[in-house]
Structures are given as C-alpha cells and as structure tokens.
Design brief:
Length: 258
C-alpha cells in the first residue's frame, strides 16, 4: 500500500498476522529508492512485521529533521529503523534524539572521518564535480556500476540521480555521526563490500557499542543479492532477541480482556 507523508511516497507492507508492537522503518541510500526493500519487507511481513519504506533523496535520508521525524510521527509506534548506505546518518540522528527503538545499519556509508578515513565511493574520479561543487550526481555507470552493485548488478537500470549537495556534505564531513547513541544497534555488512568495507562497519559499531556481523559472499546490497533471505532472518532474530519482552508484548496486551 502506498501513502504520502510530508510530501514523500511511503510503501507500507502490512503483515497478515501482526506480532510486534514496533513497526520497521526501512531507509534506502544513495541512488536508490524504496524499491530496494520490496522483497525484504514482504519476507519480514510473513514473520509479523509491519514495514514503512519511504522514497527519499539523499538530502533527506542523511538528516532526520525535514523528512524522517514527520514520517516517524505518523507511524503507529516507535519504529526499529533499518537503514542502508548513507541513510545510516539519518537513522543515527533519530536514534540520538531518542525517537527510535533500535537501529540496524546495513552497509553503512558515512563521512570518511567516521569510517577511519575509508573514502571509497566519495573519492571516485567521476564524482569530483559533486564533491567540489555539489552538482547533481548521476549513479555509477559501466564498470563502476558493477563495483557498486556487485551481485545486484541486474538492478543497475533502476538507479537514479541523487543530490549533489548531500553527496558533498557526507564526503566533506559536513554531516557526521552523533558522538553518542543510547539505543541498541546492529551493523550488518558483506565481506565482499568494497563500498562500505569491514573497516567502515567496525568504526560505526565500535563508536556506539553496537553488534557487528559480516556475511560471507555479500556485497554492498545484501538485501538484493542471492541469499538475501539469510540476511533478513539475521536481522529479524537480532531485533527479537534485543528488544525481547518489550517487543513481543503487543499481542498479549491487545488480546487481554482485562
């Protein structure tokens, strides 16, 4: 089901049998859209999750104020945020404000200074105009697209142009991770990801004391690559184990006649 919140299209996937109090807020990263979560959201709906996946520009994905806060306010309860790529920045900002219950960062791509200096995509030659002047930035093409997408290369035609100023803000360190977050988090990545490699995952996890898990044979888009179901199961298990009784109390409360 599609709705609109604060001017943004939001894809809502309802579970057949709801089991959890907290919905999932699924945030995409650079050059993509809510479509990256289509199979992920449907799969998790079978496990009882309600998912909201907004379509954002990078400018709104990295900043919680203009877009994410109104979307979160529209949700039925405080969400668990699952963020990909640069959307980790927006998810972290929301977590620092205490308006989410937990964060799952998949292949986090944040400012180089927050990744122990790992630059990767921000330093690629074809993006020098965006990096220096904040010009509109087209997605990677040709061999660069194959590096970026990895085993998700069949989706290259779905990539779209993105915000040059937002790209520049992250690349220059103008947008950074908050110094401290109190909510629990999981950092998920692929061992074959050259866009957000293990050093980047480790830096984010260490900063906040979050759990870190690397999946063998996965690249930058583990929710699109073959075997993505294993990643979805891993995320599901971690959320349930971490939030525990608080998460699972929903049905009992609703069904208790007292």
């Amino acid at each position: 089901m599609r709705t609109h919140v604060a001017g943004h299209a939001v894809e809502i996937t309802r579970p057949e049998s709801p089991k959890f109090h907290h919905p999932l807020l699924l945030l995409h990263g650079l050059w993509t859209d809510a479509w990256i979560w289509e199979r992920f959201a449907t799969y998790l709906a079978h496990r009882g999750w309600e998912s909201w996946a907004p379509s954002l520009t990078a400018a709104t994905a990295i900043d919680s104020a203009p877009a994410l806060a109104p979307i979160i306010a529209a949700l039925p309860s405080t969400p668990v945020v699952i963020a990909h790529d640069v959307a980790t920045l927006g998810a972290a900002a929301c977590a620092a404000r205490g308006i989410v219950s937990a964060v799952v960062a998949i292949a986090p791509l944040v400012a180089p200074a927050d990744m122990d200096g790992v630059r990767i995509v921000f330093a690629w030659p074809q993006f020098w105009r965006a990096r220096l002047f904040g010009t509109h930035v087209a997605p990677p093409r040709g061999s660069a697209a194959r590096v970026f997408l990895g085993d998700a290369i069949t989706h290259r035609e779905r990539l779209r142009d993105d915000s040059g100023p937002a790209f520049r803000a992250v690349a220059s360190g103008g947008v950074r991770l908050p110094p401290r977050i109190e909510v629990p988090g999981l950092v998920v990545g692929g061992e074959r990801d050259v866009i957000a490699p293990d050093a980047a995952m480790r830096a984010v996890a260490t900063r906040f004391g979050w759990t870190r898990r690397a999946h063998a044979g996965r690249g930058h888009f583990p929710m699109l690559e073959p075997g993505w179901e294993n990643v979805a199961d891993d995320v599901h298990r971690w959320i349930v184990q971490t939030l525990g009784a608080e998460l699972l109390a929903f049905l009992d409360e609703e069904e208790d006649p007292q």
